[in-house]
Amino acid sequence: MSTIESSKTMAMVGSILLIIGGIPFAPYVGILSLVGVILLLMAIKGFSQSYQDPAMYDNALKGFIYYIIAAIAVAIAFGLLWAGIATISATFFLGLGIGIVFIIGFLVALVVGFIFYVMAAKRLRTTLNSLAQRTGEKSFETAGTLLYYGAILTIVLIGGLLIFIAWIFATIGFFQMKSPGQQSPSQQQYGYTPPPPPTAQAATRFCPNCGAPVQPEATFCPNCGKQLPPP
Questions:
Q1: What mean pLDDT do residues 123-145 have?
Q2: Which 3 state secondary structure label does DSSP give 208?
Q3: Interatomic CA distance for residues 110 and 80, integer angstroms
Q4: What is the Cα–Cα distance from 100 to 78, expressed in whole angstroms?
Q5: What is the pLDDT of residue 27?
Q6: 53-112 tens-digit pLDDT
Q7: What CA dihedral angle connects 194, 7, 176 and 125, to 10 degrees?
Q8: DSSP element (H, E) containing 205
Q9: What pTM did the predictor assign?
Q10: Rounded to whole angstroms, how far apart are CA atoms 62 and 74?
């Protein structure tokens, strides 16, 4: 099995696990999502090596690292929120100031998590766009766009649905990817068919005596009859 074929198989399994992990109340969500992420990273690394595009894997790796940072920031944010509420509830007057500090920390950590979440989606969109160019599968481009705007719209809750749909489009792209033998050389290298080279045109000569156009191989001007200099 070629590197692209094995990477394609891992990507299909990884994206399906991420989709299942995005279903609310699905069993073993955390484990399925983690395995899906690992398989996708391995697959993208294989694609990156096969297409000789190191930036493809670099963007994916940084994107998943940013996701981890975002998750940690959000966990810290809700930890601070719980601590702030508990402090205010326990000792209202004495704990009010400390509780407010905790709540401010919650807001700051939440903003940091949101920023890294959007940065991660932007990196993954770049990776998916590279796959779309290399393979000719527009589903990857659609997935990248939905993933990015879904991350931005997470703040109004609709983003989660867009991200879920994005991974469905990515899965479709992995399933529809053609093997190297089914792709034309231009698709394998660039993801599109370049235009044919322009047809060479013969240079036009002019008579130095009367200025009339003459054939490149002519020795006499057909207009004035004067002998022409050698081309």
A1: 93
A2: coil
A3: 10
A4: 14
A5: 65
A6: 999 999 999 999 999 999 999 999 999 888 888 877 776 655 677 778 888 999 999 999
A7: -70
A8: strand 205-206
A9: 0.70
A10: 18
The amino acid sitting at 214 is: V
Contacts of 92 (CB under 8 A, 6+ apart): none
The average confidence (pLDDT) of the chain is 83
**Length of the chain, in residues:** 231
Three-class DSSP category at 100: helix
**Structure-token pair, residue 154:** 């997470």
> Could you tell me the two tokens for 23?
């279903």
pLDDT of residue 198: 52
User: Quick one: tokens of 223?
Assistant: 């207009």
Sign of CA dihedral 181, 185, 187, 189: positive
Contacts (Cβ under 8 Å, ≥6 apart) of 43: 7, 8, 9, 10, 11, 14
Pinpoint the alpha helices (H) of the chain.
Answer: 3-21, 29-50, 54-90, 92-135, 138-152, 159-176, 185-189
Residue 211 exposure: Cα atoms within 13 Å on the Cβ side: 0
Question: Cβ distance 4 to 178 under 8 Å?
Answer: no
Residue 25, pLDDT score: 64
Q: Supply the DSSP string of 177-208, one letter for each residue.
A: PPPGGGS-HHHHHTSSPPPPPPPP-PPPEE-T
